Amino acid sequence: MGGELDSLDLIDGKRLSIVATEDGLTAEPQVRDAGGSWRRARPGDGVAEALLALLAAAPEVSEIGSFTVHSWSARVAAGERAITVDQTNESVIVGDAAVVKWAAHLQAGPHPAPRRIEILRANGFRHMPCPWGLVAWRSEDGDQTLVAGVDEYLPGAVDGWTWAVDLIAAAADGPDAPADELVAAAADVGTVIAELHAALALTATIASPADAERWRAGATATLDEARAHSDPAMRELLESRVIDEIVDGLGGMAGTPVIEGHGDLHVGQVLKHPGGYAVIDFDGNPVLPPAERVLPIPAVLDVAGLAQSLTHAAIVARRHHRVDRVALSKVDRLARDHFTRSYAAHLAALGHGELYDPACLRAFRLQQVLREVVYAARHLPRWMYVPEAALPMLLDEGITGGP
């Protein structure tokens, strides 16, 4: 076990500890064994249940040592089981009522989630799991980071990388395959994201020239890194003048409205459940420095992230479902068209159409492809087939048209 830096005592020999490991800091649920020693808790040891009990008894905001506890709708529940999928956090379902997430890799603050969740709650945003509470930890140097979060459990919820891939594959399965379900899903998600941005509209400000230059410089740095990590064929595409021109366009976004948006929006952040769709994980973009994760963004950045992820879902569908490439390309365009049109129309109907300027939609979509190149090169080489296919598809749109 690594060195414990701090701990939040719960009940009955259970605690949440901040532990230093070779890979950085982690939030570790711990339980005391019969001999009095502390060990890492497993689902079933009751630490997640103990956190719910703490939240249920706490005021809306409380300070416990260097921990800040936010409690909104928590109640006591019993019975723990793990969520056994590969993910950033370690998650435990408690009593089929709540999901407790222990942060496996702590990110130095400031952290955007507490404020954004508070704003969404206050403005009645209904398309997210009901937040029960969260715990933040403040280090000695004053940085605050999220160490645990608790949300309502949505039975039957399906991750976006599953529902989107399946719907796209079904719609591309032959010339007579119906696309109605995919079109309806894309339009519904557009409505959900419009309502998300409308709920965050009170945070709106105007982008400065420095903001625009930061976006351009950030995309340029990602482009440079993607070029460095690419094979010759991909590098030839990345070194085209067209890509430099698209990226440079981000420098002209001064004067654009910005909001405290999601910041890391893609289909994997949108659950499909029997009641509709739910947006999750308001932690901001993990690839950005902490101080940038909390900064306002153009609404189009969120839209671009979701739209581009539909293309990536189509590429995944092509590999795993063996559907026709041309049909899949048409279905990908269809899904993106209905998503973006539904989003823009609904945002305008809600009275906040001024928040969305699609002029840089393609540039932010390109930035997401570049980030996928870097991610695959650094962490997951088998994922590289996705950006390798996505980049020429996006560049072809400049010839054939499309969002």
TrEMBL record:
Mg(2+) 1 binds at residues 269, 281. One of its GO terms (biological process) is carbohydrate metabolic process. It is an enzyme of class 2 (transferase). Keywords: ATP-binding, Carbohydrate metabolism, Kinase, Magnesium, Metal-binding, Nucleotide-binding, Transferase. ATP binds at residues 101, 159. A motif (Substrate specificity determinant motif) lies at residues 368-383. One of its GO terms (molecular function) is glucosamine kinase activity. Its cofactor is Mg(2+). Mg(2+) 2 binds at residues 281, 283. D-glucosamine binds at residues 264, 372. Its EC number is 2.7.1.8. SUPFAM superfamilies: Protein kinase-like (PK-like). InterPro entries: Actino_Glucosamine_Kinase (IPR053634), GlcN_kinase (IPR043674), Kinase-like_dom_sf (IPR011009). Binds 2 Mg(2+) ions per subunit. Coiled coil: none annotated. It catalyses: D-glucosamine + ATP = D-glucosamine 6-phosphate + ADP + H(+). Belongs to the actinobacterial glucosamine kinase family. Catalyzes the ATP-dependent phosphorylation of D-glucosamine (GlcN) to D-glucosamine 6-phosphate. May be involved in the phosphorylation of acquired extracellular GlcN derived from the hydrolysis of chitosan, i.e., in the incorporation of exogenous GlcN into the bacterial GlcNAc metabolism. Monomer. This is Glucosamine kinase. It comes from Mycolicibacterium aromaticivorans JS19b1 = JCM 16368.
